[in-house]
Amino acid sequence: MISIDELKKMAQLSHLAITHDQLLAFQPQIDAILAHMSDLNEVNTSPDSLTPIHPSPCHMREDIPLQSNLSPQLNAPQWEGGFVVPQLS
Amino acid sequence: MSVIQSLANQYRSGQRRVSDAIQSRLATITQQDPTIGAFLSVHTDQALTQAATLDQWFKEGRELPVLAGIPLAIKDNIHVKDTTTTCASRVLQHFIAPYHATVTERLLNQHAIILGKVNMDEFAMGSSTENSAFQITRNPVDPSRVPGGSSGGSAAAVAANMVVGALGSDTGGSIRQPASFCGIVGFKPTYGRVSRYGLVAFASSLDQIGPLTRTVEDSAIMLDAICGHDPLDSTSSPHPAPAFFEQLNPNVSGLKVGVPRELLSEHVMPEVRDSVMAALDRLITQGVSWEFFSMPSLKAAVSTYYIIAPAEASSNLARFDGVRYGHRAEGCATVKEMMHATRGDGFGDEVKRRIMIGTYCLSSGYYDAYYNKAQAVRRVIQQEFNTAFAKYDVIITPTSPTTAFSIGQHHHDPLSMYIADIATIPVNMAGLPALSIPCQPSDPLPVGLQLIAPAFEEQRLLNLGLAYQQVAGWATLLEVHNA
To answer: Where are the domains of chain B?
Structure first.
């Protein structure tokens, strides 16, 4: 079973503030979901079971940098000539 | 029988004014939406202004596209410039889109009228539209039940006649399953067929925009408007899009259909199985032949999806950090604390759960066992589709193993809701096109029939869908679902 400590670590890595009560609620749910994923092992994915990949019908365009006419200011919650980031204490 | 074309003809003949049609739909929204909860924002003023202009143009005898004056709704994860795009999340509650999504621009170029933005599961994560931060949407066929999700607002708005059509997005069935639950038509195009520029990303290798409509013809008309290459989306296909509506042809005699027996197993509700079997019998009368076949990897499709999609989501949603977009938590001492609090406050439980699962599957100790394995199984699923399409022209399944379930039924057991995506998920895994059409007026709830074709064979699906629509007696279906 996934432990509360492991979930805390995942929340930290995910930059999520999560209460202890939420972790307790998530634990059995995430545990059941991860347990269900064991059925992946029933599928044979050895290299000789896979055929070569066909070329994708979707061709990626050339990666050409374009000048956006949109200012990032339009998205920003706070802007004073640049993104305003709260000062470090 | 195209609802869009019928309305367009009325505008051209002077039988109906665009303003009257729009007023009428707005009145339906005012009357019905307090119960249904489909709309997050209604753009009344813009819609009426646009309608007045179109009335003048029709009066002057201008040649206008078929979508001119047609009332539509847009899922709230697709940008409409200068209006909110909330993704049904507190994190983006006050976010104003600074540009149009390509699909929006294409609809507006055809002078379609966008009546508003519609509800969804937060960031398209869910199958019931119960995960919205703002409201629950109810199924117009039976308001004690969910409309499906995540494009539940789009499906409910169309099914309740608030709009003629709507756009949704489909990452694992989010257009098809709500279409199935609400008794309408939902189309998920081939990955790359429709530009994703301006769609807020959930799982970028799976997401695709598509239409929800009342009829197959309307679906073809909307696809004509939104399909085609877009240089602003690097995954957009250069394949020229055919004129789907013009090429509609219900003569499907000789088509071979495969039915995966795993998707009509004992886990499928008996009434769903009976409806699908009856639909297959009806198709035989149109000269279609069918047989069962096996796709063994389907048993692992749900697990594969619920690793790959959360992994991509944990990366895509990292941008919502309180610095660059939307909501920012107040009163924090450090940047890190602010980011954690912003995301902790801003995201709902389902989004948090999936971000954590994604992070878990991508973390160094588990990457091979989960993420790499899931990618390999995805290849196997694609291979099994390729093998099937060497033998069959179309694959048919139920869209969902159940009819619309009761609100709150899966609240404490997310896994049980995930498992119900079994029939729709494999299509996204392989990037294929699929159409969900109502099977028959199941008593008392609609059942969806899912048609799947090889990549870029949307026309084949539309033709087969049209043939089924005609043989199933569509007028009767619409009456039943309007009741």
So the answer is: 3-257+391-482
Nearest by CB to B303, from A39, A74, A88: name it. A39
The DSSP result for B312-361, as a single string, is HHHHHGGG-SSSSSS---SS-SSHHHHHHHHHHHHS-HHHHHHHHHHHHH
From B333, B360, B456, residue closest to A57, measured CB to CB: B456
All residues at 6 or more sequence positions from B293 whose CB lies less than 8 Å from its CB, including other chains? B258, B259, B260, B261, B388, B391, B392
CATH of B3-257+391-482, one of 3.20.20.80, 3.40.605.10, 3.30.70.260, 3.90.1300.10: 3.90.1300.10
Query: What is the chain B residue with the closest CA to A22?
Result: B349
| Residues in chain A within 8 Å Cβ distance of B344 | 16-18
pLDDT at B483: 44
At residue A52, does pLDDT exceed 80?
no
Annotated active-site residue B150? The verdict is yes
Residue A2 placed within a domain: yes
**Contact yes or no for A30/B356 (Cβ under 8 A):** yes
* Active-site residue flag, B174: yes
What element of type H or E holds B293? strand B289-293
- Which range of residues forms the domain containing residue A30? 1-37
The residue annotated as part of the active site, out of B174, B297, B314, B442, is B174
Residue of B nearest to A57 (CA): B237
Question: Within the 23-62 window of chain A, which residues sit less than 8 Å (CB to CB) from chain B?
Answer: 25-26, 29-30, 32-34, 36-45, 49-51, 53, 57-61
Query: Cβ A89–B353 below 8 Å, yes or no?
Result: no
Say if CB B165 and CB B4 are below 8 A apart.
yes
Cα–Cα distance for residue pair B101/A82, rounded to 1 Å = 25
CA-CA distances (angstroms) from residue B162 to B30, B109, B269, B308? 9, 22, 30, 35
Does residue A31 lie in a domain region? yes
Q: For residue A41, which residues of chain B lie inside 8 Å, CB to CB? A: 373
Compute the count of residue pairs across chains A and B with CB atoms less than 8 Å apart: 158
Q: DSSP 3-state assignment of B194?
A: strand
User: Is pTM, for the whole model, over 0.90?
Assistant: yes
Angle at B48 between CA B45 and CA B53, to 5 degrees: 125
For B58-89, how does the pLDDT look when each residue is reduced to its tens digit (9 = 90+)? 999 999 999 999 999 999 999 999 999 999 99
Within-domain flag for A48: no
CB atoms closer than 10 angstroms to residue B225: 23
Span A58-80, pLDDT tens digits = 666 777 777 777 777 777 878 88
Residue B397 pLDDT class (50, 70, 90 cuts)? very high
- What does each C-alpha distance from B288 to B255, B394, B397 come to in angstroms? 5, 10, 15
C-alpha–C-alpha distance, residues B155 and B400, integer Å: 15
| Nearest chain A CA: its distance from B101 CA (Å) | 14
Q: Could you say which of B2, B19, B128, B150 is catalytic?
A: B150
Structurally, chain A folds into a number of domains equal to 1
Specify whether the CB–CB gap between B74 and B97 falls below 8 A: no
